[in-house]
Every structure is written in structure tokens, then in C-alpha cells.
């Protein structure tokens, strides 16, 4: 068992990411966003699940804002544009 917080080092004024698993069915990626950082709108070929460990984040999914705080899980459907703002 590994503690997720020990697997990534946040970057001041940036975004850190680490791929934890990779397969033909998709990836599991751990992100650490500094406040004010995010990912521009994009799509993925697979559904994505985002688990918020701490802080607060806003996902824009198909044009709808979804706010999530610590301990939340958010489903990002395949082929639906989404963006992330921390």
C-alpha cells in the first residue's frame, strides 16, 4: 500500500503529474495542481474518474461547471470536452 501524497511533489505555480499505471484501456495519472493552475479544455477516448484528495477544484464538463472539494469523486465522460481549474 502506498500513500498518494508520497508519490508526487507539488510544483509551486505549476502542475505536477505522475503516471501510476498505463495500459491499452487507459491510464491512471496522479496530478498536483497549485492554486490558479489548470488544464485547458480537451477530450479523452475513455471515461475518467477524478478523485480530489485535498483543496478545491472546478471541472467544466460539456460546458457545465462542477465544483469538487476534498474527498469528492467526479466522472468525466469519454469524448465530452472537459477542463480543470484549481
Descriptive labels:
53% strand; 86 residues; mainly beta; 4-stranded antiparallel β-sheet
Describe this structure in words.
With 86 residues, the chain is mainly β. Helices cover 0% and strands 53% of the residues. The protein has no helices and eight strands. The protein has a four-stranded antiparallel sheet, with no helix packed on it. A two-stranded antiparallel ribbon has the order 1-2. A hairpin with a 2-residue loop joins strand 5 and strand 6. The protein starts with 14 loop residues before the first strand and ends with a strand.
List the helices and strands and how they pair.
Layout: E1 15-23, E2 26-33, E3 38-42, E4 48-51, E5 56-61, E6 64-69, E7 73-76, E8 82-85
Antiparallel strand pairs: 1-2, 3-8, 4-7, 5-6, 5-8
Amino acid at each position: 500500500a502506498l500513500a498518494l501524497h508520497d508519490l508526487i511533489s507539488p510544483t509551486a505555480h505549476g502542475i505536477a503529474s505522475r503516471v501510476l499505471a498505463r495500459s491499452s484501456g487507459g491510464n491512471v495519472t496522479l496530478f498536483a495542481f497549485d492554486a490558479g493552475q489548470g488544464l485547458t479544455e480537451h477530450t479523452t477516448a475513455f471515461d475518467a474518474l477524478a478523485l480530489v484528495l485535498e483543496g478545491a477544484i472546478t471541472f467544466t464538463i460539456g460546458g457545465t461547471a462542477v465544483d469538487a472539494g476534498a474527498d469528492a469523486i467526479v466522472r468525466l465522460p469519454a469524448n465530452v470536452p472537459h477542463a480543470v481549474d484549481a
